Amino acid sequence: MASYPVRNDSRIVLHLDYDCFYASVFEVEQPILKTLPLAVQQKQIVVTCNYEARRRGLHKLQLIRDAKRICPDVVIVLGEDLTKFRNASKDLYLFVKDFVWGGRVEKLGFDELSLDVTEMIDYNVGVLNPHDLPSSFFHLDRTDPTVGFAYDAARFEGQTDPPSPEGCGSASSLGLSSLEVRLRIASHLAGYLRAQLEHVKGYTATGGISTSKLLAKLVGNLHKPNSQTTLLPPYEATENNSQGNVIQFLDAHEIRKIPGIGSRLAQKLKDHVAGDDATDDKVTVKDVRLFPGMGPVLLEKILRGPGAPRGIGMRMWNILHGVDSAEVLEARDLPTQISIEDSYGRLDSLDSVRRELAILAKSLIRRMRTDLLDKTDPTTPLGRWLAHPRTLRLSTRPRLPPDSDTGRTYSASRISRSTPLPPFVFALDENIDGLAERLVQEAVLPVFRKLHPDKAGWALSLMNIAVTNLVESAGDQKQSSGRDIGKMFRQQESRAVPGSRTPPVLVDPRGAANDLLDAWDAWEETDEPLPGRMCPRCEARIPDFAWQAHEMYHSSVD
DNA sequence: TTGGTGTAG
DNA sequence: GATTCTACACCAA
C-alpha cells in the first residue's frame, strides 16, 4: 500500500480576511461612502469595490469604463498610492496581535492574517466547566481572570462546514472529540476578534477556523462577507463518515483554488489528469488525488520543470490531503525589499523616462525613510537606519513582449538589471528631491542603459525600481546575526594598545557593520594587538579596519 | 549575486 | 491572459 500523509491537528489556526479592504479604508475615512456603491481605481481598472457596488454588478479587476456603464452613479476613488492601505494594514495587524498570546500572527498581504491561537484555546479548554458550557468565560489573559468575554461553549459561533445539525447541544458534549471542543471555543474567539475589529476599528472581516493555515484560509472563503466558518470535525474517517470532513471539503475544490497552486501548476495537473482532449473540464482535487498511479513521485514528475521548487511532489501530495505543516510566522520587522512602480501607456523618450524615474526615486527614498528608519531613539533625532539595502534594481516591461506571436509559451514580460546602491541616499539631512535626482543620474540611468542599450526602439509600459539585499544594522539590543557586540567591546578593551588612555570606540553600530564584524572575527583568531589610530572628533581610538566606516559615520551624522 | 518565474492579495 | 502595485520564495547560472 502507498503511504498517505498524516495530519497533525494539534494546532488551532484562525484566518481573517478584511472585507474589500481598499474600499473599507475609504469607508472608515468617510462613513457616508458605506451607503453608496464605491469602487477603487488604479489606472483604468477597478481594483476592488464595496458590496453595495457588487450588488449592482461591479466586480474586481473590471474596466472603469464598464463599471461606469453598468452603474452610472458609482463613486470612484483613486487608489494608486498604497500608503494609507499600508498604514491601515499595519494598524489592524498590531491591534489583532495584541490579543494573541505569543504574538503568533502572520500577515498575508495587506488584508489577511493567520493566527496561531493554540495556546489560548488549550488554556481555555482547561478552565471550561463541562457541566455548564452555555455560561463559559473566555480568558484573554492568563494573569488577570477578569479580562475576556462570556460565551456559549455548547455551540459554534458563526457557520460551520458541513452545516451543523440544529439542536446538538451540550447533551452530546460528553462524547465529543477534544478537537471539536477546541474548534468550538476557537470559533468564539474568532467572533470576538471580528467584533473588536468592527466596533473599535470599523473594519468587518471574514474568518476561517481550522487546524492549519491552508484549511483555515480555504474554509474562510465559504461565507463572505462579514461572517465566519469553522471546518467541522471529524477530520479523520469514521464509521459514519467514510472519508472525514477534510477530504470531503478539499475534494470538491477546483485544483486551481488551492493556495499555492497557481495557473501554471494547475495547468500541468490538468494536462495530466484530463488529457489533451478534455481541455475545458474543471479538474478537482479529487480528480488529481485519485488519478491512477498518483502519489508524490508522479506529482514530482508532473510538476518538475524550470522554476519548480524541490520536493514539490511531496508537498503537493500533502496539500491534496489537507496536510499543511507550515508554521504561522510572525511578520518580519523589516521588509526584504521595497519597490515602487508605475505603468504607462507608452514611454519611448529618454526625457520622459528620466522624468518618471525621478518620480519613482522620490517615492522610493520616502519609503526607505518610513520603513527602514528608527525614529524612536532620541539620540538620533533624524532617525537611525535599521538596515541598509545594498542593491538597486530597475525593471521594465516592454510594450509588446518580443515573443508575442505564438501565444503558446510564456511571456517573461519583465526584464531587470541591478547595480550597487550608492550610499549617499542614506543621508538624512539632504532633501529627498535632491537625493532622488542624484540617484537617477548616477545609478538608475546607467542601469537603464544596461537594460536598453539601443537609443530608441523600446517602448515601455512599466518601470519599477527596487532596493533589495538589506543588511541589518548591528542592533543596539538585538543580536544582529548571533554576534555579541558587548563581547566585542570587552575584548577590545582587554587587548587595547598600550599607551592609549581613552578606551577605544569600535565604530558607531548604525553603520553598515557586517564587513567590520567579519574583520573582527578574523582579528579574534590572531594574537595581534589591534592596530588603530585616534579620531580627533571622538577623541577615541578607532581600529584601522573600522576607520573607513567610522569616517562615513561622521559624514552622515555631522 | 543576478535575473527570472511563479505565487499571492 | 492581462488589467494594478506590490512582496516573497525559489530557481539556475
Please characterize this protein's 3D structure:
With 558 residues, the protein is of the alpha+beta class. It has four domains: 13-250, Reverse transcriptase/Diguanylate cyclase domain (Alpha-Beta Plaits, 2-Layer Sandwich), CATH 3.30.70.270; 252-320; 338-403 and 410-472, Dna Ligase, domain 1 (2-Layer Sandwich), CATH 3.30.1490; 485-557, no CATH class. The chain has 17 helices and 20 strands. The strands form six sheets. The protein has a six-stranded mixed β-sheet with strand order 6-7-1-11-12-10. Strands 4-3-2-5 form a four-stranded mixed β-sheet. A hairpin with a 4-residue loop joins strand 19 and strand 20. The chain starts with 12 loop residues before the first strand and ends with a helix.
List the helices and strands and how they pair.
Elements: E1 13-18, H1 21-29, E2 38-42, E3 45-49, H2 51-55, E4 62-63, H3 64-70, E5 75-78, H4 83-97, E6 105-108, E7 112-116, H5 118-126, E8 136-139, E9 148-151, E10 159-161, H6 178-201, E11 205-210, H7 213-220, E12 228-231, H8 245-251, H9 263-274, H10 285-289, H11 296-303, H12 312-320, E13 338-347, H13 350-372, E14 373-374, E15 384-385, E16 387-398, E17 415-420, H14 432-451, E18 460-472, H15 485-494, H16 514-524, E19 532-535, E20 540-543, H17 547-557
Parallel strand pairs: 2-5, 10-12, 11-12
Antiparallel strand pairs: 1-7, 1-11, 2-3, 3-4, 6-7, 8-9, 13-18, 14-15, 16-17, 16-18, 19-20
The structure holds a DNA duplex (9 and 13 nucleotides).
* Beta-strand percentage range: 15-25%
Gross geometry: globular
Any low-confidence stretches, pLDDT <50, length ≥5? 169-174, 402-410, 477-528
Kindly report the CATH topology of the largest domain: Alpha-Beta Plaits
* Alpha-carbon Rg, integer: 28 Å
Beta-strand segment tally:
20
Mean pLDDT: 83
Helix- and strand-based class? alpha+beta
CATH class call of the largest domain: Alpha Beta
Q: In angstroms, what separates the terminal alpha carbons?
A: 72 Å
Strand ordering within the main sheet: 6-7-1-11-12-10
- What is the CATH architecture term of the largest domain? 2-Layer Sandwich
Helix fraction by DSSP (H/I, runs of at least 4): 25-40%
Number of domains: 4
